[in-house]
Amino acid sequence: MPEPTPETHVIDYRAAEQLLAARDPRGAVKLLDSVITAHPENTAARLLRARAFFGAAQLRAAELEFQLVLEREPDNAFAHFALGRTLQRANRPAEATRHFRLAAALDPRPDFVKAARFGENG
Q: Where, if anywhere, are coiled coils annotated (predicted)?
């Protein structure tokens, strides 16, 4: 089997996007593992893998991956929102609310603002 090339990694990334859209998050994770091994600094691939982990209900793996993205891009509103959803699903509402509010502060999209529940305790 030939060595993967940068082009192969792009193809795998795009295929992983399609698998996630087709509701096959585990297949997406498998494709992204090799991409991230070859390019650990690729935040987009890590964000996609975090979404795939979330879709596969692998909440701890999703949480760790979203946190890594946020270490690199602390102003990534979507990553804050997705981490909030992950924490919410893991029954950690106070932590989730913190990330929902950060997401809404960074990008006041209606879904982010609604999740942030400003004006409520928490």
A: none
Residue at 10: amino acid letter: V
Angle (CA) 30-35-36 rounded to 5° is 95
Q: Looking at the structure, tell me whether residues 82 and 40 fall in a common domain.
A: no
> Do the beta carbons of residue 106 and residue 87 sit within 8 Å?
no
Residue in the block written with tokens 């999703």: 62
Q: What is the pTM of this model?
A: 0.91
Report pLDDT digits (tens) over 33-54: 999 999 999 999 999 999 999 9
**Would 64 be classed as within a structural domain?**
no
Nearest partner of 77 among 108, 35, 115, 41, judged by Cα: 108
Distance CA 33, CA 68 (A): 15
Q: Are the beta carbons of 102 and 82 closer than 8 angstroms?
A: no
Q: How far is CA 122 from the centre of its chain?
A: 23
